[in-house]
Amino acid sequence: MSARRSPEYFGGKKIQVGIIGLGYVGLPLALRFAEQGHQVKGFDTDPGKVAKLNAGQSYIQHIPADRIAPFRSSGVFSATSDFAEIAGRDAVIICVPTPLDERYQPDLSYVEQTARSIQPHLQREQLVVLESTTYPGTTEELVLPILEKSGLKCPVQRDKHAADPATDFYLAFSPEREDPGNKRFSLAQIPKVVGGINAPSRRAAAALYGQIVARVVEVSSTQAAEMCKLLENIFRCVNIALVNELKMLCARMGIDIWEVIESASTKPFGFMPFYPGPGLGGHCIPVDPFYLSWKAHEYDFSTRFIELAGEINTSMPYHVVNEIAAALNERKKSLKGSRILLLGVAYKKDVDDLRESPSLKIMQLLLERGALLDYNDPYFATLHRMRHYDYAHMRSVELTPHALAGYDAVVIATDHSAYNYQEIVDAAPLVVDTRNATKSITRNHAKVVRC
Ligand SMILES: NC(=O)c1ccc[n+]([C@@H]2O[C@H](COP(=O)([O-])OP(=O)(O)OC[C@H]3O[C@@H](n4cnc5c(N)ncnc54)[C@H](O)[C@@H]3O)[C@@H](O)[C@H]2O)c1
Fold this sequence. Notes:
Helix content: 25-40%
Largest sheet: 8 strands, mixed
Number of strands: 13
Bound molecules: nicotinamide-adenine-dinucleotide
Order of helices and strands: EHEHHEEHEHEEHEHHHHEHEHEHEE
Structural class: alpha/beta
């Protein structure tokens, strides 16, 4: 390790990088640094994950083991739960969860616990970067005071034109823009936004990320970088709510929303398509906007767009279940006692991620209303007990024409590419499609209800 780690040092070769939290964000990031020739140590409190990684195995479907194993055998990458090893790192990047609690308030306990784990091992001129999505102010108001308990200081610089302050360590925020399963944009191609507690911190983080991504965008503060990520996700959340509301209006007016979106998308400027669905899912879009709403209260400000979008998106699973009941009613059947097969429990197509999946809510509502429910998902052979749901007894059923024919309705909740939609429509007596997955099928179209 160099005797003096200037901000420029982090743009050099063979940096000792530590990644804390080896999940959907942290693991790809660790592998990217390893690919670029840096020594990477991953930290995770889950001993199962640590053991798997050290055995060269993966636990994330879209990250194959052969991306991990070579770095294990060459010694470039290893994982641990021993936070004392932080002392030997030049840079430490925090990628731990930032969920909401039961009352829809930010749960920053993981970030706080991580800062406390770093603090006793913090070294002079070490760089610490927070990547977890959070409200503006978290890095400065929560992480900085904990790290400064070490006795080392990182002065906040408000005036970006002022001379560099003397800083004992570097602290920055850089949001993660990873889109799991996206084959068009890999981590290396997505520009990285960085903001520092002071200018040396910002430059240190920019130099570090400059090694693994094509473009780094420097902003004047950690707050601007934190807000940038929230703007991106609120933009999605609000537009998805808008299109979901228009979907319901279009249905009432007898207009096909999908056709409308497709035609509007031919406008070469000023429009970008968002698609309706059964509700919001994933760890980011349903959660992140509420981080900002919560913080806004501190400023006597109510974020009405976020609240309204939340209201509409949250109501979508209820809408889907009502549409299933209406479609059965048309066929002189009640939801109670009907055999329903739900396809796709993952929150979006082709991923093995259940977090905040609207399918879970739809399943709960169907069960509450007396449906006899099964599910199929190629990524989940079984389900487990979750914070809000207990589907531990359920197993993915086999999709044969005979089995499909035995249900009163088959609901396409997530449009995995593995499904053969024509075969599903041919075999099932009724298909309720929440994703427009059946758009190109040619036979038996009358059996399909889109909602
Ligand atoms: N998943 C995404 O697509 C995505 C995209 C952009 C941003 N983010 C944000 O990135 C952050 C991480 O998300 P994720 O999807 O990778 O979460 P994840 O749950 O997949 O991974 C988090 C990991 O952190 C570990 N962990 C928890 N507490 C820890 C601690 N105190 N010390 C060390 N490890 C700890 C967990 O065991 C887990 O392996 C969140 O703030 C999320 O909002 C996620």
